[in-house]
Amino acid sequence: MTEPSPIATGILCRCPRCGRGKLFSGYLKLAPQCGECGLSYDFADSGDGPAVFVIFAVAPIIIILWWIVEANFVIQPWMHLVLWLPATVIFSLLLLPPFKGVLINLQYKNKAKEGRL
Question: What is the pLDDT of residue 14?
């Protein structure tokens, strides 16, 4: 059996070993183990990595959209807050689980562990 792609299974929030079981039991809460193959998720610790990558992805999207709106429409400055604050929150919340899934799946595939002396 071939090992599933850590990127594909991460985006789908699936188990890094079998690619079928759910990775999360809640929005961002890891399940204790895979329901399909029984892999324990005790190894998983993505830390702040997903949030950093989401910031790097969402910020340019919001800025580009802001430029497009600014170039094509004349709107009041407060309207930018009304548009871009909710958009930033929504994009960030939508991207956090897949980014966390990818980092956990890459951690499993590369057998990454905490540094030791």
Answer: 95
Per-residue pLDDT tens over the stretch 3-51: 889 999 999 999 999 999 999 999 999 999 999 899 999 888 888 999 9
Q: For residue 115, is it within any domain?
A: no
What are the beta bridge partners of residue 33?
40
Does residue 33 lie in a domain region?
yes
What is the length of the chain? 117
pLDDT at 96 over 90: yes
H-state helical runs in the chain: 6-11, 49-72, 77-109
Q: For residue 22, is it within any domain?
A: yes
Cα 73 to the center of its chain, rounded Å: 32
Find out whether 106 and 10 touch, Cβ atoms under 8 Å: yes
Type of residue at 61: I
